[in-house]
Specification:
Layout lengths: L2 H19 L12 E3 L4 E3 L7 H7 L17 H7 L4 H20 L16 E5 L13 E11 L3 E15 L5 E14 L9 E4 L3 E5 L4 E5 L15 E5 L2 E13 L4 E3 L10 E5 L5 E5 L3 E8 L4 E6 L4 E3 L7 E12 L10 H5 L12 E10 L5 E2 H6 L4 E10 L2 E12 L4 E2 L7 E2 L1 E9 L2 E12 L21 E7 L4 E5 L4 E4 L4 E5 L4 E7 L2 E16 L7 H4 L11 E14 L5 E2 L2 E4 L3 E3 L2 E12 L3 E11 L9 E15 L2 E11 L2 E7 L2 E13 L3 E12 L2 E12 L3 E6 L1
Antiparallel strand pairs: 1-2, 3-4, 4-5, 5-6, 6-7, 7-10, 8-9, 9-11, 10-11, 11-15, 12-17, 13-14, 16-18, 17-18, 18-19, 19-21, 20-23, 21-22, 22-25, 24-26, 25-26, 26-27, 27-28, 29-30, 30-32, 31-32, 32-33, 33-34, 33-35, 33-36, 36-37, 37-38, 38-39, 39-40, 39-41, 41-42, 42-43, 43-44, 44-45
């Protein structure tokens, strides 16, 4: 066809399609119109719904579920790690040659009855069936007899067996298990005498689930010494297989999980392994489980298995799992449990049927929290905080499970770190693992600032309506811990006999370093102080409300602060700014404040004020006194926790100087606090000048009970 004609047909077809796809009507919603302007081309927005908008309107949740792709247990690795003994290789080759001879000579029989044994070698070959008549898929059992020795009471044979299983070797061929025995005894009438156990020739290593597990069948015959143990064995009678005894171990890839000790510390990276040949080699230390079982067939194995404590390889410092009871399920005919996570059903991960699932079902276990979580007991015993849980599975999708617990760490026991800690509770905690993905752990609780904690009384958990401490919500991912304060209510600053209200921009960080939380509070807000002079912490004072109705000698309201920083590392206490914008009183007299400052070190802290006391109220400015006041607290560590304790209020010597023309007063005042007769006020020894008289030594009282008064006696 002419090239021009071809192009014409193609262009005609495209033109026809364009007419069909983009009809030129006023209702066309697919067209894009351009409008010329003097400066540029403006493109009118299409009425199409864009893909990202479609996703917002009709979200589709796509959960990727795939078998773990990386393989640790390759045939190449196994040949390097487990070098086969030459005697074992020769014995297996001998058994294979014997069955080749039986096949070549057609020496297969239905049973080993006496009348069937005419010439050797002889063999039986069959495919096992379960109780319902179903064949064991891909499994072939072959028995062979050679080398008969006739005695007066019995005939002794050398017997061999070969079981071909569905799993494949490095060449893609089905794996063959070889068994042997040198002393199979049979009566002259054809009955087998005693236990006819044929033991596995050498250890057999079978990669599983894409090379993420390694199943090792333990051989029971040492060909160097002749010692025989019934570890993995084949028990037979004259008609064939009676039972299959298995002693095995399962290793898990270090890419999936890692072994740890009872405290969650990493185990050595290598360990010793002793094979059936009696030789000891060094192999990588993986999570390894052992089990033993007597089964009717290869594809119907369900056995309880022992497993050590382990952590996820993706989170070696994260949650620890200690197994109480686990089951190895390798049966196609029955199921060991039906406690599968919801995402298995949502994503159809049990296809074609639940009975075909194979893996490890951990019925009960203990979940250890990451090492950053501490209690007084866990620090003393050097253990992880843990809780009992149920239902975890490990299969070709990885590790899956969901665990929840309430009130695992009470506020009275919880610590953010091992030394100089803050009190911390974990009221709720949930951990989710889905198909070898750590989908996260959420935890909620409370943090008690060290300046809010009363030391001389036991910190106790209170009701949810009046929780003690700052409420937080936390989240753990594979990379980090995250913390968010869900409420910033009023809190007590017990060290200063104060109650503070935090501003919304206050924050608490809870970073994790070297297995410990490193809390840091950056607080902004205002506080009110109410205390008596020389008041000490007692059992009764601790139970009193800071802002009770009883009048106090010192009452400061509206003290503002910014960047008040608390942390567990030096400097543990510092502040950026102090100010005031409220009412300040000393002995119920109005006061002006100046030069507010914080002084602190690792032993204690004090907040200091310059005070100007107006002894007669705002309308009378003739009586004024100056002093400096300090509110002191001490620091020490008790029960692995920072302890800030209110110590005292110190009021420096109060200086008074009044000039009212004819009357002039000068001297020092002493605070009178809650006096039964005089109430709150000051008494003084002063020098007074009265007109032309003076100076004269005087006594003075400035006070308030039901009313404000002053008195000078010269």
């Amino acid at each position: 066809m002419d090239i021009k004609l071809r192009y014409s047909l193609i262009l005609s077809l495209l033109w026809a399609v364009s007419l069909f796809a983009f009809p030129r009507t006023e209702k066309d919603t697919l067209s894009v119109t351009t409008i010329k302007t003097s400066s540029s081309m403006v493109v009118q927005e299409s009425k199409l719904t864009m893909l990202e908008d479609m996703e917002k309107q009709f979200p589709i949740a796509i959960v990727e579920q795939s078998v773990i792709s990386t393989s640790e247990f390759t045939h190449k690795l196994l040949e390097k790690e487990y070098q086969q003994d030459k005697n074992i290789q020769a014995s297996r080759a001998e058994v294979a040659a014997m069955f080749d001879q039986i096949e070549a000579e057609g020496k297969w029989v239905d049973s080993f009855r006496n009348e069937d044994i005419q010439t050797l070698p002889l063999g039986i070959s069959y495919t096992p069936k379960d109780k319902d008549g179903n064949t064991d898929d891909g499994v072939i059992v072959e028995l062979g007899l050679v080398n008969a020795t006739v005695n007066t009471k019995y005939i002794e044979f050398t017997a061999f067996a070969r079981i071909t299983i569905p799993q494949t070797d490095k060449n893609g061929k089905r794996i063959e298990l070889f068994f042997g025995a040198n002393n199979l005894k049979m009566t002259h009438k054809g009955g087998i005498i005693g236990d006819a156990n044929l033991v596995l020739l050498g250890d057999v290593h079978i990669p599983w689930n894409g090379g993420k597990w390694l199943l090792t069948l333990k051989g029971g015959m040492n060909l160097d010494t002749g010692n025989v143990q019934n570890l993995t064995y084949f028990n037979m009678d004259c008609d064939g297989l009676k039972e299959l005894g298995i002693q095995a171990e399962v290793q898990f890839s270090r890419d999936m999980i890692l072994p740890v000790d009872s405290n969650g510390e990493p185990m050595s990276k290598t360990r010793s392994y002793k094979g059936a040949d009696g030789k000891t080699i060094t192999i990588p230390n993986r999570v390894t489980g052992n089990f033993g079982i007597v089964s009717s067939g290869w594809s119907d194995i369900i056995a309880e298995i022992s497993l050590p404590s382990f952590v996820l390889a993706s989170m070696p410092k994260g949650f620890m799992f200690s197994v109480n009871k686990a089951i190895f399920d390798f049966s196609d005919q029955r199921i060991s449990h039906d406690n599968f996570p919801k995402h298995y059903y949502d994503n159809d991960l049990l296809f074609p049927s639940i009975e075909n699932w194979r893996g490890f079902y951990i019925e009960s276990l203990k979940v250890g929290l990451p090492e950053a979580f501490h209690t007084e007991e866990s620090i003393a015993k050097k253990q992880r905080v843990s809780f009992e849980a149920h239902h975890m599975i490990i299969d070709n999708y990885g590790v899956s499970g969901h665990f929840e617990v309430n009130n695992i760490i009470p506020l009275s026991e919880g610590r953010t770190n091992k030394t100089k800690a803050w009190a911390m509770s974990v009221d709720q905690l949930g951990v989710s693992l889905a198909a070898n993905r750590f989908t996260g752990a959420n935890f909620d609780g409370r943090i008690l600032l060290p300046i809010s904690d009363n030391l001389q009384k036991k910190v106790t958990d209170t009701t949810k309506d009046n929780p003690k401490g700052l409420v937080y919500s936390g989240l753990i991912s594979e990379e980090e811990f995250m913390l968010r304060l869900s409420s910033l209510n009023e809190i007590e600053f017990n060290i200063w006999k104060a109650k503070a209200k935090l501003a919304p921009n206050s924050s608490i960080e809870l970073k994790v370093e070297e297995g410990n939380f490193r809390p840091k509070a950056i607080l902004h807000g205002e506080m009110a102080i109410s205390s008596d002079i020389n008041e000490k912490e007692t059992a009764s004072s601790l139970s009193e409300d800071i802002n009770d109705e009883k009048e106090k000698a010192i009452t400061f309201k509206g003290i503002t602060f910014q960047d008040l920083v608390l942390q567990t590392e030096s400097p543990i206490f510092q502040v950026g700014y102090f100010g005031y914008r409220g009412e300040v009183k000393v002995a119920n007299f109005p006061v002006s404040i100046g030069d507010i400052a914080l002084s602190s070190n690792d032993q204690g802290a004090a907040i200091n004020f310059d005070l100007m006391i107006n002894l007669m109220g705002k309308e009378s400015k003739g009586f004024a006194a100056k002093t400096r006041l300090g509110i002191f607290c001490n620091f020490k560590e008790e029960n692995h926790k920072q302890q800030w304790r209110y110590d005292r209020i110190d009021l420096s010597e109060i200086h008074i100087e009044a000039n009212m023309g004819a009357v002039q007063l000068k001297g020092n005042l002493k605070l009178r606090n809650n006096d039964e007769v005089y109430g709150n006020g000051f008494k003084a020894n002063i020098t007074g000048t009265f007109g032309t008289f003076g100076p004269i030594s005087c006594k003075a009282i400035f006070g308030k009970k039901e009313f404000r008064y002053w008195y000078v006696d010269a």
